[in-house]
Structure formats: structure tokens, C-alpha cells
Specification:
single chain
């Protein structure tokens, strides 16, 4: 995943400039340390595998500490036709709990470190070719790939306040996730898939759909808009 995202860089430069200016200005009125915020991560809406809508609620405990809970639902935009009877536009959900520690807190901008734990589950409708054990004939079958993922991340980011209520955040991080990927809804689950051709290029879909139980790297990156009640 690339960290040279133009939005990330732009917000970083803007926030550093605001931080420098804000440090030179004496605050005449104190900024409330305890408040609630509602946030919308935007990059999740652009997920190429399973676009999802997530909403986060943060409780700022004081000037340095905060707790955030996030929940979301996902959808499958690449459904193979004809759709199965049990097909649903909503194909999964995501949950995340996070602790934040803020540094260099100013009126408009602050930096933070965050640690989180998460759980994600969704099913992706797809199609593949298999070999019948009884007839040795190849056939195509539509089925689900079910993914269950749990893990933890350590993130670094910055928060920028625009006015009294609106805020923007951006962050990047590194962590791990344990994945359990299985097939479900197969016509004949015991039939073996047709051996695939050697891949010509790297495929994100092939990597994320690898069957089995295994642990892999998690690299969160996002841009968030929010509204604080204070």
C-alpha cells in the first residue's frame, strides 16, 4: 500500500502549518477536553474488494486520551449473475475498538498514537471451474468465499479541527490479521478446482481470496471527516 497519497500529504502540510501558527497564539478561552465525536472513514467506501460504510464514535476522555468504537456494513458489487436465492446487498460487517493517546494538543491540530483490535466478516460471491469426481468433466460453479479476519494495529495520525465542530483526520499504521477463508455454497464441495494457469501479473483478488487459516500483514490507511459535540 502506498503512503504517498495526495490527500494525506496535503492534510499533513496543512496541519503542520496550523500547528506552528497555533503554538504562537496564546489561547484566551480553554478548549473542552471531554466531548463526543462522530466520524466517517472515506477510504472504506472505495475498497475494491468489498466497499463498506463505517461509522466511528469517539469519547475524548481528557486532553490526552480517547476511546473509539467503530462499526460498519459491507456490500458486494461484483455479484456474478444469476444471483443466488440467498443473495443480499449487505454481505458482512466490521467491528473495531481503539485507544488513542494524543500529543502536542493545540486548538486546531494534534497528533496521536492509537492501538486497536478488530474483527471483520463478509462473503464474496464468485465463480470458478471444477472437475467432477464422478464424470471427470469440467464445469463452472457459482459460490461464496467467506472471510473471517481478526487482528490488531498500531497507528500514527493527526487530527485537524476546522471551526468549532468539524474535524479531519488522517492516519497510517501497521499490524497483523489472522484470516480464515473458506468456500461455501458449492454444488459439489468435494470436487477439485481446475488447476489455474500460471499468473502473469500480481492479482490483489487472488491474494485476498487464498483459502485456509493464516496470518498476514495489516496496513491501515485512511482519511476521516468528523463532527464533535462540544
Amino acid at each position: 500500500m502506498r503512503y504517498k497519497n495526495p490527500i494525506f500529504v496535503l492534510l499533513l502540510l496543512t496541519s503542520v502549518n496550523a500547528f506552528a501558527q497555533d503554538s504562537m497564539i496564546r489561547k484566551h478561552t480553554p478548549t473542552p477536553n471531554k466531548y463526543w465525536s462522530v466520524k466517517l472513514p472515506l477510504f472504506n467506501l472505495l475498497d475494491p474488494v468489498s466497499p463498506n460504510l463505517q461509522v466511528a464514535v469517539e469519547r475524548r476522555l481528557n486532553g490526552k486520551n480517547g476511546i473509539q468504537l467503530l462499526a460498519g456494513i459491507s456490500t458486494d458489487l461484483t455479484t456474478t449473475k444469476p444471483r443466488p436465492r440467498d443473495y443480499s446487498v449487505i454481505n458482512g460487517y466490521r467491528l473495531r475498538a481503539e485507544y488513542r493517546r494524543y500529543f502536542h494538543v493545540r486548538r486546531k491540530v494534534s497528533f496521536f498514537l492509537a492501538g486497536d483490535v478488530f474483527y471483520t466478516q463478509y462473503k464474496h460471491y464468485t465463480r470458478d471451474s471444477f472437475i467432477s469426481q464422478s464424470t471427470n468433466i469440467r464445469y463452472a460453479d457459482n459460490f461464496y468465499i467467506l472471510k473471517k479476519m481478526a487482528g490488531a494495529d498500531l497507528k500514527w495520525g493527526l487530527q485537524f479541527h476546522a471551526g468549532k465542530h468539524f474535524m479531519f483526520e488522517t492516519f497510517a499504521g501497521l499490524g497483523f490479521k489472522h484470516k480464515a477463508v473458506t468456500r461455501t455454497g458449492r454444488t459439489s464441495p468435494l470436487d477439485e478446482p481446475v488447476p489455474p494457469l500460471p499468473p502473469k501479473d500480481f492479482s490483489l483478488g487472488d491474494q485476498t481470496n487464498t483459502l485456509g487459516n493464516y496470518t498476514t500483514v495489516s496496513m491501515p490507511l485512511n482519511f476521516v471527516i468528523g463532527y464533535s459535540f462540544r
